Amino acid sequence: MEIKSAEFVMSNSDVAKCPKNLVPEYAFIGRSNVGKSSLINMLTSRKSLAKTSGRPGKTQLINHFLINKNWYLVDLPGYGYARVSKSSKKTFQKFITDYFTQREQLVSAFVLVDIRHKPQPIDLEFMAWMGENGIPFSIIFTKADKLKPQAILNHVADYSAIMLETWVDMPNYFITSSSKSIGKEDVLNYIHELNENMME
Fold this sequence. Notes:
By secondary structure, the protein is of the alpha/beta class. The protein is built from 5 helices and 7 strands; from the N terminus they run E-E-H-E-E-H-E-H-E-H-E-H.
């Protein structure tokens, strides 16, 4: 899929105020320092569509971007570490939970995981919550350019081994690097296929 247009539509912290039209949505979420904004900018070929920052926790709202006039890319706040108050974190958690449990337009989520690290409990717990609530998602392993090919395979195998202790199958996943544009076509083609399937 080629991204011909990508435009910011709105930001808010209330799911009830999200766009009312029945346009398919794909939500991106992950820990606050996983490289989510860089990935979104890489996928859309826009250098500053999503705001990147050296300070984790920059995204603090539900951000809707209209892609090719026919689907929304939704940038959600990171879970886990963020330099914000406990009350703010509770607010984030509530509207993230509300978004996933109430948003009928959501087709699939993408949970971003830093490929450089061993499986982290916070990521595993979040994906378990997604599974328990029947929310479709894929894993996007980020920062693949930081590891050699064999190390990438080893880390994915570590994730698979742990997840298969409680999951029937390993969730669908992608290997990406924002700086090298690795995985861009795979992710976009997957979204295109889901959109096409919805129209059949």
